[in-house]
Amino acid sequence: IDIIFNFNGGEEMLLQAAHGFITTHSWASQICAVINLESAGAGGRELLFQAGPKHRWIAEAYGRHVKRPFGHSLSQMLFQTGIIPGDTDYRVYRDFGNIPGADFAIISNDWVYHTLRDDLAHVDWRSIQRYGETATSLARGMAEVLKHGVPTGPMADEAAVYFDLAGTFFISYSATWARRIHIAVAVVALSTVFY
After folding, report:
1. pTM score, whole prediction
2. Which of 10, 32, 58, 98 is the least crowded, having the fewest Cβ atoms under 10 Å away?
3. Cα separations (Å) of 126 from 36, 44, 110, 121, 130?
4. Catalytic residue list contains 60
């Protein structure tokens, strides 16, 4: 498995660099997954706020390989519906390259973001270290899956519902199971109300 590091600019101007890479570079057709690292602050935990689309194997690889998980699919829903405004290179890879992946951001100390204080003096280097550890662990987990070929069937066709428990455990399950669990909980809740 080869890994491509794409450090680009042009994000704030309609994501031009990501779009240029995914639509014109000769390597673009060889990419089978992406890990996108974002920042909307100068520190904090690296939040997994989008995984997929569909391709629940990505959330499962994250859960198996990342030591200190931090993410939930609720943030994905809020971000993709526009309730949380913004855009990332992940969307360009997803929409123009049809490439699944994971989208992360650090969001603490957001008061310095895009100000004169958005500099190295205000960066929390512990966050950068954790970010690197998480990205490396997920890349290894994804490579472990991909060495057997790009997943197909339910692992590629179903989305994951996922969340962490106190940054220690990561729970993920298919959207199909989520519907079953949510319906069962609703039935139990309603039956206790009307009992």
Report:
1. 0.90
2. 98
3. 19, 8, 16, 13, 6
4. no
